[in-house]
Amino acid sequence: MFANLPKIAINLTKNQQSLIFAGWIILALNLLVIAIFYADLPETIPSHFNYRGDVDGYGKKNTIWTLPLIMCFTYTLLYLIIKKVKPWNMNHPVKVTEKNAPQVYNMSLQMLILMNLLIAIIATPVIIETILQAYKIDIRFKISSLSLIIVAVVTLLPIYYIFKMFKIPK
């Protein structure tokens, strides 16, 4: 299946490496924020928000760790794919030739890196909203609703890159 694809190594750019590092920082900050507030949280906290950002589920305070830990696991898994899987072993929506391989491979990696960064960010609004709601602080804006926007961007990002790849000359 992948036997005919050009085997051209692609090194991550400084910008791509910075985006990966930024994701690790965001994940660490999410965990740090929880650690700072955890001791003072009430025993029951919001554990789920609907699409409008309203609380529609409660749980024990240790449930606040669930989403960031899932995001850490997901981020790490996709990071390993980015670092270890060779681009010629990935599926691409366009015919990959010797001429366009560097651009297609780089675009594929860029898409994965951006998706991974968004995965790191996606838990942040929910964590902040959970802490605010637990302390009964109303800021008149449902921060957790921002996660829906991030999910939409993660969903549309591959479509954007597919269209970009079709514009690369063969």
What does this structure look like?
The structure is a single chain. This protein has 4 helices and 2 strands, in the order H-E-E-H-H-H. It is mostly helical and 170 residues long. Helix 1 packs parallel to helix 3 and helix 3 runs antiparallel to helix 4 (146-166). The radius of gyration is 19 Å and the shape is elongated. The chain starts with 13 loop residues before the first helix and ends with a helix.
Notable characteristics:
170 residues, two-stranded antiparallel sheet, mainly alpha
Q: Ends: how far apart?
A: 19 Å
Mean pLDDT: 91
Which segments are poorly predicted (pLDDT under 50) over 5 or more consecutive residues? none
Count every beta strand, where a strand is a DSSP E run of 2 or more residues: 2
Strand content is 5-15%
Short recap of the structure:
This protein has about 170 residues and is mainly α. The protein has helices at about 15-40, 65-85, 100-135, 145-165; strands at about 45-50, 55-60.
Which helices and strands, and how do they pair?
Layout: H1 14-38, E1 44-49, E2 55-60, H2 66-84, H3 101-134, H4 146-166
Antiparallel strand pairs: 1-2
